[in-house]
Predict the 3D structure of the following.
Amino acid sequence: MRIDVLTLFPEMVRAPLETSMMRKARERGAVRLFIHNLRDWAEGKHHVTDDRPFGGGPGMVLKPEPIFRAVDDLLGPGGARRRGPGVEFILLAPQGRTLTQAVAADLARRHWLVLLCGHYEGVDERVRQALVTDEISIGDYVLTGGELAALVLIDAVVRLLPGVLAEGAAEQDSFSSGLLEGPQYTRPRVYRGMEVPPILLSGDHGAIARWRRQQALLRTLERRPDLLERVPLTPDDRRFLEEVRARRPGRPRPPGDG
Ligand code: ADE
Protein backbone atom coordinates (compact mmCIF):
# COMPACT_ATOMS: atom_id res chain seq x y z
CA MET A 1 0.00 0.00 0.00
CA ARG A 2 1.03 3.59 -0.62
CA ILE A 3 -0.14 6.45 1.62
CA ASP A 4 0.49 10.14 0.94
CA VAL A 5 -0.32 12.77 3.57
CA LEU A 6 -1.01 16.36 2.48
CA THR A 7 -0.59 18.74 5.40
CA LEU A 8 0.44 22.27 6.35
CA PHE A 9 2.27 20.81 9.36
CA PRO A 10 4.45 17.89 8.22
CA GLU A 11 6.37 17.94 11.49
CA MET A 12 3.15 17.04 13.27
CA VAL A 13 2.87 13.70 11.49
CA ARG A 14 6.50 12.75 10.83
CA ALA A 15 7.70 11.38 14.19
CA PRO A 16 4.75 9.06 14.92
CA LEU A 17 5.17 7.48 11.47
CA GLU A 18 8.86 6.85 12.19
CA THR A 19 8.21 5.11 15.50
CA SER A 20 7.29 1.62 16.70
CA MET A 21 4.96 -0.42 14.47
CA MET A 22 4.61 2.22 11.76
CA ARG A 23 8.40 2.26 11.37
CA LYS A 24 8.47 -1.54 11.27
CA ALA A 25 5.66 -1.63 8.71
CA ARG A 26 7.66 0.71 6.48
CA GLU A 27 10.90 -1.21 6.98
CA ARG A 28 9.13 -4.48 6.13
CA GLY A 29 7.79 -2.94 2.93
CA ALA A 30 4.13 -3.33 3.93
CA VAL A 31 3.51 0.35 3.30
CA ARG A 32 5.20 3.27 1.57
CA LEU A 33 4.44 6.55 3.34
CA PHE A 34 5.05 10.04 1.98
CA ILE A 35 4.45 13.29 3.84
CA HIS A 36 3.98 16.46 1.76
CA ASN A 37 3.84 20.10 2.74
CA LEU A 38 0.85 21.68 0.98
CA ARG A 39 2.72 24.96 1.08
CA ASP A 40 5.06 23.56 -1.60
CA TRP A 41 2.15 23.87 -4.08
CA ALA A 42 1.16 27.38 -3.00
CA GLU A 43 2.10 30.23 -5.30
CA GLY A 44 3.63 33.64 -4.68
CA LYS A 45 6.40 34.82 -2.44
CA HIS A 46 4.47 34.05 0.71
CA HIS A 47 3.10 30.63 -0.29
CA VAL A 48 -0.36 31.50 1.01
CA THR A 49 -2.58 28.44 1.56
CA ASP A 50 -5.62 30.00 3.27
CA ASP A 51 -7.92 32.98 2.87
CA ARG A 52 -10.97 34.62 4.46
CA PRO A 53 -14.36 33.01 3.79
CA PHE A 54 -16.62 34.59 1.17
CA GLY A 55 -19.71 35.93 2.91
CA GLY A 56 -17.75 36.72 6.04
CA GLY A 57 -17.43 34.83 9.28
CA PRO A 58 -14.63 33.80 11.61
CA GLY A 59 -11.51 31.88 10.72
CA MET A 60 -9.79 31.04 7.49
CA VAL A 61 -10.51 28.55 4.72
CA LEU A 62 -7.95 26.38 2.90
CA LYS A 63 -7.62 27.66 -0.67
CA PRO A 64 -8.41 25.24 -3.49
CA GLU A 65 -5.41 25.92 -5.76
CA PRO A 66 -2.59 24.29 -3.74
CA ILE A 67 -4.75 21.22 -3.14
CA PHE A 68 -5.76 20.81 -6.79
CA ARG A 69 -2.14 21.26 -7.86
CA ALA A 70 -0.91 18.72 -5.32
CA VAL A 71 -3.49 16.19 -6.53
CA ASP A 72 -2.57 16.87 -10.19
CA ASP A 73 1.07 16.13 -9.32
CA LEU A 74 0.43 13.07 -7.18
CA LEU A 75 -2.53 11.38 -8.86
CA GLY A 76 -2.76 13.13 -12.22
CA PRO A 77 -5.65 15.31 -13.48
CA GLY A 78 -8.98 14.04 -12.15
CA GLY A 79 -7.22 12.57 -9.13
CA ALA A 80 -8.51 9.47 -7.36
CA ARG A 81 -11.79 9.53 -9.30
CA ARG A 82 -9.93 9.03 -12.54
CA ARG A 83 -7.55 6.45 -11.13
CA GLY A 84 -10.17 3.97 -10.14
CA PRO A 85 -11.41 1.87 -7.24
CA GLY A 86 -8.14 1.07 -5.44
CA VAL A 87 -7.34 4.75 -4.88
CA GLU A 88 -8.96 7.12 -2.40
CA PHE A 89 -8.54 10.83 -1.79
CA ILE A 90 -9.68 11.17 1.80
CA LEU A 91 -10.44 14.41 3.60
CA LEU A 92 -10.10 14.20 7.38
CA ALA A 93 -12.85 16.39 8.81
CA PRO A 94 -15.46 16.26 11.59
CA GLN A 95 -18.21 16.14 8.92
CA GLY A 96 -16.97 12.77 7.61
CA ARG A 97 -18.28 9.26 8.28
CA THR A 98 -16.94 7.90 11.55
CA LEU A 99 -13.85 5.71 11.47
CA THR A 100 -14.62 2.22 12.76
CA GLN A 101 -12.77 -1.09 12.61
CA ALA A 102 -14.92 -2.03 9.60
CA VAL A 103 -13.98 1.21 7.79
CA ALA A 104 -10.28 0.60 8.59
CA ALA A 105 -10.52 -2.97 7.27
CA ASP A 106 -12.16 -1.70 4.09
CA LEU A 107 -9.46 0.95 3.55
CA ALA A 108 -6.75 -1.68 4.17
CA ARG A 109 -7.86 -3.35 0.92
CA ARG A 110 -7.05 -0.25 -1.20
CA HIS A 111 -3.61 0.17 -2.71
CA TRP A 112 -3.28 3.96 -2.53
CA LEU A 113 -4.65 6.46 0.00
CA VAL A 114 -4.04 10.20 -0.25
CA LEU A 115 -5.01 11.91 3.00
CA LEU A 116 -5.81 15.61 3.13
CA CYS A 117 -5.57 17.17 6.57
CA GLY A 118 -8.14 19.96 6.84
CA HIS A 119 -7.33 23.01 8.91
CA TYR A 120 -8.75 26.29 10.14
CA GLU A 121 -12.49 26.69 9.55
CA GLY A 122 -12.43 24.21 6.70
CA VAL A 123 -11.57 23.53 3.10
CA ASP A 124 -12.96 25.26 0.01
CA GLU A 125 -16.03 23.24 -0.97
CA ARG A 126 -14.79 22.75 -4.55
CA VAL A 127 -12.15 20.39 -3.17
CA ARG A 128 -14.98 18.17 -1.93
CA GLN A 129 -16.94 18.59 -5.13
CA ALA A 130 -14.18 17.66 -7.55
CA LEU A 131 -11.54 15.67 -5.69
CA VAL A 132 -12.58 14.02 -2.44
CA THR A 133 -13.72 10.40 -2.73
CA ASP A 134 -14.20 9.77 1.00
CA GLU A 135 -14.47 11.96 4.08
CA ILE A 136 -13.62 10.56 7.48
CA SER A 137 -13.96 11.77 11.06
CA ILE A 138 -12.35 10.00 13.99
CA GLY A 139 -15.15 10.95 16.37
CA ASP A 140 -17.70 13.52 17.40
CA TYR A 141 -15.33 16.19 18.63
CA VAL A 142 -13.43 18.94 16.86
CA LEU A 143 -9.64 18.94 16.57
CA THR A 144 -7.57 21.92 15.47
CA GLY A 145 -6.69 20.06 12.28
CA GLY A 146 -6.82 16.73 10.49
CA GLU A 147 -3.23 15.68 11.29
CA LEU A 148 -3.98 13.70 14.44
CA ALA A 149 -6.97 12.14 12.70
CA ALA A 150 -4.77 11.13 9.75
CA LEU A 151 -2.35 9.46 12.16
CA VAL A 152 -5.17 7.55 13.82
CA LEU A 153 -6.48 6.40 10.45
CA ILE A 154 -3.01 5.36 9.24
CA ASP A 155 -2.30 3.40 12.40
CA ALA A 156 -5.65 1.60 12.30
CA VAL A 157 -5.22 0.71 8.60
CA VAL A 158 -1.51 -0.14 8.46
CA ARG A 159 -1.61 -2.58 11.37
CA LEU A 160 -4.09 -4.63 9.32
CA LEU A 161 -1.79 -4.94 6.29
CA PRO A 162 -0.23 -8.35 5.68
CA GLY A 163 3.14 -8.78 7.42
CA VAL A 164 2.75 -5.95 9.95
CA LEU A 165 1.46 -7.80 13.01
CA ALA A 166 2.20 -11.36 14.09
CA GLU A 167 0.01 -13.91 12.30
CA GLY A 168 -3.50 -13.94 13.79
CA ALA A 169 -2.95 -10.89 16.05
CA ALA A 170 -5.40 -8.65 14.17
CA GLU A 171 -8.09 -11.32 14.41
CA GLN A 172 -7.75 -11.21 18.22
CA ASP A 173 -8.45 -7.48 18.36
CA SER A 174 -11.26 -5.88 20.19
CA PHE A 175 -14.00 -5.26 17.58
CA SER A 176 -12.70 -7.79 15.04
CA SER A 177 -14.99 -10.40 16.55
CA GLY A 178 -17.49 -7.63 17.27
CA LEU A 179 -16.72 -8.01 21.01
CA LEU A 180 -14.33 -6.14 23.27
CA GLU A 181 -11.20 -8.04 24.17
CA GLY A 182 -11.10 -9.65 27.61
CA PRO A 183 -8.29 -9.50 30.20
CA GLN A 184 -4.72 -10.57 29.41
CA TYR A 185 -1.98 -11.58 31.85
CA THR A 186 1.73 -12.19 31.74
CA ARG A 187 4.34 -13.18 34.33
CA PRO A 188 4.58 -13.09 37.34
CA ARG A 189 1.79 -15.48 38.36
CA VAL A 190 1.19 -13.53 41.55
CA TYR A 191 1.85 -9.81 41.74
CA ARG A 192 1.19 -7.79 44.90
CA GLY A 193 -1.24 -10.45 46.00
CA MET A 194 -3.15 -10.48 42.68
CA GLU A 195 -3.24 -13.89 41.03
CA VAL A 196 -3.53 -14.87 37.40
CA PRO A 197 -6.78 -16.84 36.88
CA PRO A 198 -5.77 -20.52 37.32
CA ILE A 199 -7.51 -21.60 34.13
CA LEU A 200 -4.89 -19.74 32.07
CA LEU A 201 -2.20 -21.95 33.64
CA SER A 202 -4.17 -25.18 33.14
CA GLY A 203 -2.87 -26.04 29.67
CA ASP A 204 -6.44 -26.97 28.68
CA HIS A 205 -6.72 -25.01 25.42
CA GLY A 206 -10.41 -25.70 24.92
CA ALA A 207 -11.25 -24.47 28.42
CA ILE A 208 -9.01 -21.41 27.96
CA ALA A 209 -10.71 -20.50 24.67
CA ARG A 210 -14.16 -20.82 26.33
CA TRP A 211 -13.06 -18.68 29.29
CA ARG A 212 -11.66 -16.01 26.97
CA ARG A 213 -14.86 -15.92 24.96
CA GLN A 214 -16.88 -15.54 28.15
CA GLN A 215 -14.62 -12.78 29.45
CA ALA A 216 -15.02 -10.92 26.14
CA LEU A 217 -18.80 -11.31 26.41
CA LEU A 218 -18.75 -10.06 30.02
CA ARG A 219 -16.63 -7.02 29.25
CA THR A 220 -18.80 -6.17 26.25
CA LEU A 221 -21.97 -6.59 28.32
CA GLU A 222 -20.59 -4.27 30.99
CA ARG A 223 -19.05 -1.59 28.81
CA ARG A 224 -20.66 -1.69 25.35
CA PRO A 225 -23.93 -3.65 25.54
CA ASP A 226 -24.92 -2.01 22.22
CA LEU A 227 -22.29 -4.15 20.46
CA LEU A 228 -23.99 -7.38 21.60
CA GLU A 229 -26.97 -6.58 19.41
CA ARG A 230 -24.82 -6.67 16.29
CA VAL A 231 -22.52 -9.70 16.82
CA PRO A 232 -23.43 -13.22 15.81
CA LEU A 233 -23.76 -15.09 19.12
CA THR A 234 -23.56 -18.86 19.47
CA PRO A 235 -26.10 -20.78 21.58
CA ASP A 236 -23.34 -21.14 24.23
CA ASP A 237 -22.82 -17.35 24.22
CA ARG A 238 -26.55 -16.75 24.70
CA ARG A 239 -26.76 -19.24 27.53
CA PHE A 240 -23.78 -17.65 29.27
CA LEU A 241 -25.20 -14.12 28.92
CA GLU A 242 -28.59 -15.24 30.26
CA GLU A 243 -26.89 -16.76 33.31
CA VAL A 244 -24.93 -13.59 33.93
CA ARG A 245 -27.97 -11.37 33.58
CA ALA A 246 -29.97 -13.63 35.90
CA ARG A 247 -27.21 -13.51 38.52
CA ARG A 248 -27.03 -9.71 38.53
CA PRO A 249 -30.54 -8.34 38.80
CA GLY A 250 -30.83 -4.57 39.16
CA ARG A 251 -27.12 -4.03 38.76
CA PRO A 252 -26.53 -0.28 38.37
CA ARG A 253 -25.68 0.71 34.83
CA PRO A 254 -22.29 2.35 34.22
CA PRO A 255 -22.44 6.15 33.95
CA GLY A 256 -23.42 7.36 30.50
CA ASP A 257 -25.05 4.04 29.58
CA GLY A 258 -28.49 4.79 28.18
N1 ADE B 1 -10.50 17.60 11.95
C1 ADE B 1 -11.02 18.25 13.01
N2 ADE B 1 -11.72 17.45 13.78
C2 ADE B 1 -11.68 16.20 13.21
C3 ADE B 1 -12.22 14.94 13.54
N3 ADE B 1 -12.98 14.74 14.62
N4 ADE B 1 -11.96 13.91 12.72
C4 ADE B 1 -11.22 14.10 11.61
N5 ADE B 1 -10.68 15.26 11.25
C5 ADE B 1 -10.89 16.31 12.04
The longest strand covers residues 87-98. The two ends are 40 Å apart (CA to CA).
